[in-house]
Amino acid sequence: MKEFTHYILEIVIIILLLVVFYLLKNYWPKYFEAKATNQATKEDIGEITQIVENIKSDLSQQIELLKAQLSLTNQHKLDIKSAEREAIFDFNKRKSVWIYSLIRFSFYKYDLDNFREINRLTYLEYQQRQYEYDLASAHLILFMHDKEFMQLKEKLIVQVLELHSIVLNTTYSLFEAFIKAEMRLNSEKDNSPEKSKIRYEMIEELLSIQNIYKGNTEKQFERVTELDYQMRELLCNRLKILEDSTTAYSGLAK
Length: 254
What we know:
The protein is mainly alpha-helical. The model has no long low-confidence stretch (mean pLDDT 79). It has helices at residues 2-26, 28-103, 117-140, 147-187, 192-253. The protein is built from five helices and no strands.
């Protein structure tokens, strides 16, 4: 009985050994192969993830660089638009100062005691106004040099210069009237009736000069005003375009 039991036990052991051998032969290599595959997959995924992260980092840096360059470019354009806006305001200011200083000219403050100031002060003042306008105009041409603006500016300056000429010619006529009266009065120092006559004739001549000046300036001012109105409209339209483009660039710069 013991031998039979021992025999049975040996058979079971042999069977178990065969089963273990079969398992080791068929599943053990596959296990290690799957294990190696999983490890390789994990390593591949890690490498791929690292590559993706590197690409994302490079793209992020490039995007930030492009954004910085775009912001710098847009800021530069905004600075140019701002400079153009200031040039427009300055041009309009200098133009208006020159025109209205000519219109507001008055010779009522001059008489025989101070008439020598007429030519000197008037000439210097208006030359300064024109000089300031010319500078502002030259600066604005850096930004506005289209045909419409250039033609309108040329027409306006011609008419303003004509108004300028009327004022200067009037000052010359006034000066001549005063100097002539002064010379006649000096020659009649002791003749009161004649001096009164000379003063009366001087006043008559001054009134005549005034009437001529008034008629000429009113007609010329109408021409200047019409062109000046067109110029203001053109400048306002330009400012509107600047405002729209500035808003667009400001949005891109953010």
